[in-house]
Design brief:
The chain has helices spanning 2-7, 29-32, 54-61, 80-95, 127-144, 176-181, 196-205, 224-239, 241-244, and strands at 13-16, 21-23, 46-47, 72-74, 100-103, 149-153, 165-167, 188-191, 208-211, 248-249, 255-258, 262-268, 271-277, 287-290, 298-300, 308-310. The protein is of the alpha/beta class. Helix 7 links the parallel strand 8 and strand 9 (208-211).
Length: 315
C-alpha cells in the first residue's frame, strides 16, 4: 500500500494513540495492567472516546456514556517496555514505507498517577517523564529514518521541542493573529461534510486541512462536490507554494481591502499574495490596495477557473 501511495506522490502517516493508552479488552492489557495510571483508590483511570461508535458520540454530547465500544486506560510513561515496544513497532512500519505518525491524544496527557510501584512519588504528574520519553523516541526514530515526521494532536507549545507538527482543528475564527505571531507553526483547520468555509479559511491562513467527515467515520468522497472544491483550492496553493504554503503570513499588513470580505496577505520571494474570502451568502464587490507601492503585474486565481495574468498597473 505504501509503495502505491508513494508512486502517486503521497506520504503515508498513521494516526495512533499507542504512546498513550491501551484497550482494556486486548490480550496485551494484562501485560501492562500494572503500569496503567492509577487513581486515588489504586484503580486504572479509564476513558471512552466518542468517535469509537455513533452511540458514543451521542452519549458523550449528553455528558455520560452508555454506548458499546472499548474502554481505554493510559499507561504511565515510567514503563520502559511500553515505550520500547512503541519504538519497535514504528521501526517495523517505517521499514514497510511509513513516512510519519500522529500521536493521538498527546495534548490531553497529564493525569496524576497514584501508583506506588512505578518509580515515582504517588500523586505526581508524569509530564517530565513524558518529555524525556518523547525526546528519546525522536532520537531513536530519527536515527532509523531522519525524515520521519512526528505529529501530535492539539498539543501545547512545549511539545514543539519533540514533535514536528500539531494535528490541530481550528473551527473558530481566532487563529489569524496567532498565525501571524507564530509563523513557524504548521496547523490545520477542521473540514467536515460540505464545510466550504473551512476550506476557504485554510487557503486564507495558509493552514492544512484536517478532513473529518461524520466523526471520522467516512472519507471526503462522501461529499464529492466538496472533494472537487478541495482539489481546486489545493491546485491554487500548489501553483504558488513560495507564497501560500511556505511564505510569511502577514495577517492584513501591507494591503487593505474595501468590501465585505475577509482577507489575508502572504509574503513571498518576489512580492505579495492576497487571499480574499467571501464568507457571506451573496456576491460581494471589493477593491484591493497595496500599501507599499502599486501592483505592476499579478495573477488572479479563482477555484475551478483558469488563472488570469495581468501586466497592467492597478492598485
Amino acid at each position: 500500500m505504501c509503495d502505491a501511495l508513494h508512486a502517486r506522490g503521497m506520504k503515508v502517516m498513521v494516526l495512533t494513540h499507542r504512546q498513550s493508552a491501551i484497550n482494556m479488552e486486548l490480550p496485551e492489557y494484562k501485560r501492562f495492567e500494572l503500569w496503567t495510571i492509577k487513581d486515588r483508590l489504586g484503580r486504572p483511570r479509564t476513558e471512552v472516546w466518542w468517535k469509537t461508535t455513533i452511540e458514543a458520540l451521542m452519549t458523550h454530547n449528553m455528558g455520560h456514556f452508555e454506548a458499546t465500544g472499548p474502554v481505554w486506560t493510559r499507561v504511565c510513561p515510567y514503563c520502559d517496555a511500553w515505550w520500547e515496544g512503541f519504538r519497535d513497532e514504528l521501526k517495523t512500519l517505517i521499514d514497510m514505507g511509513l513516512d510519519g505518525a500522529q500521536l493521538d491524544t498527546i495534548g490531553t496527557e497529564g493525569n496524576l498517577c497514584y501508583a506506588t510501584n512505578h518509580g515515582h512519588k504517588p500523586g505526581t504528574g508524569p509530564m517530565p517523564k513524558l518529555a524525556e520519553r518523547l525526546a528519546w523516541l525522536r532520537e531513536e526514530i530519527r536515527a532509523h529514518k531522519p525524515e520521519f515526521v512526528l505529529c501530535g494532536e492539539e498539543f501545547g507549545d512545549w511539545l514543539f521541542q519533540y514533535l514536528d507538527l500539531p494535528y490541530s482543528r481550528h473551527r473558530a475564527d481566532d487563529a489569524q493573529v496567532f498565525r501571524y505571531t507564530f509563523p513557524e507553526t504548521k496547523e490545520n483547520v477542521a473540514v467536515s461534510a460540505y464545510s466550504y468555509d473551512q476550506v476557504n479559511k485554510s487557503l486564507m491562513l495558509g493552514m492544512g486541512m484536517d478532513i473529518e467527515v461524520w466523526g471520522l467515520k467516512k472519507s471526503v468522497l462522501a461529499c464529492p462536490e466538496l472533494a472537487d472544491y478541495i482539489k481546486q483550492v489545493v491546485e491554487i496553493r500548489r501553483a504558488f507554494p513560495d507564497y501560500l504554503m511556505n511564505g510569511r503570513f502577514m495577517d492584513t499588513l501591507k494591503a487593505s481591502v474595501d468590501g465585505a470580505v475577509r482577507y489575508a496577505v502572504h509574503e513571498g520571494p518576489q512580492g505579495l499574495a492576497v487571499v480574499l474570502w467571501n464568507n457571506s451568502n451573496a456576491p460581494q464587490d471589493c477593491r484591493v490596495a497595496f500599501t507599499e507601492g502599486r501592483l505592476e503585474q499579478g495573477t488572479l486565481c479563482k477555484p475551478g477557473e483558469a488563472m488570469e495574468w495581468s501586466g497592467c498597473h492597478a492598485t
